[in-house]
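Narrative of accomplishments. A recurring question from our advisory board has been how the design workflow behaves on a single, concrete structure rather than in aggregate. To address it, we present the structure tokens for one chain from the evaluation set, followed by the sequence designed for it. No filtering or post-editing was applied between the two.
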């Protein structure tokens, strides 16, 4: 299938998108995010708070080795992660239902090429103090009876939508 080796992946040009996991409990969700980050050759993943870190068998079960290819960092406090990313020139957006949020299916007007998205805890979402630090909020339109989705499903939808613009430019 003409896939990159881990070494080739690490040397390849990355999509300038970082996923931040804010206190995500499920190790399977963490692994799934790693696998999706690998698929779209993202710049990296930031694991914050109680979010588990590799190596761990349950992360590996869904990541299938992507935890070895995708760069990752750990921050005890998500706020420190957001501050770090902003200092690195990233626009940071929380994926959350907030007043004034931008619907994901609307055309985003991102002026910076480097983008980070914060995904929150499976029950509580993104912490309010983290939302307050972000440059804005993205929201996935939902039309059913539920008002939330699994965090790894949300990650996949958001990553795909944001990568559509970048993928042709950066991953050739």
């Amino acid at each position: 299938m003409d896939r990159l080796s881990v070494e080739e992946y690490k040397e390849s040009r990355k999509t300038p998108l970082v996923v931040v996991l804010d206190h995500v409990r499920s190790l399977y969700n963490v692994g799934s995010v790693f696998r999706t980050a690998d698929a779209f050759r993202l710049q990296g993943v930031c694991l914050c708070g109680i979010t588990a870190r590799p190596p761990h068998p349950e992360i590996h079960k869904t990541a299938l080795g992507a935890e070895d290819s995708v760069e990752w960092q750990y921050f005890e406090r998500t706020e420190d992660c957001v501050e770090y990313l902003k200092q690195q020139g990233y626009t940071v957006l929380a994926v959350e239902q907030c007043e004034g949020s931008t619907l994901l299916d609307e055309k985003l007007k991102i002026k910076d090429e480097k983008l980070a998205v914060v995904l929150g805890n499976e029950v509580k979402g993104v912490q309010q103090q983290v939302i307050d630090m972000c440059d804005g909020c993205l929201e996935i339109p939902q039309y059913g009876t539920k008002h939330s989705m699994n965090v790894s499903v949300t990650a996949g939808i958001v990553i795909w939508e944001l990568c559509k613009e970048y993928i042709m430019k950066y991953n050739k």
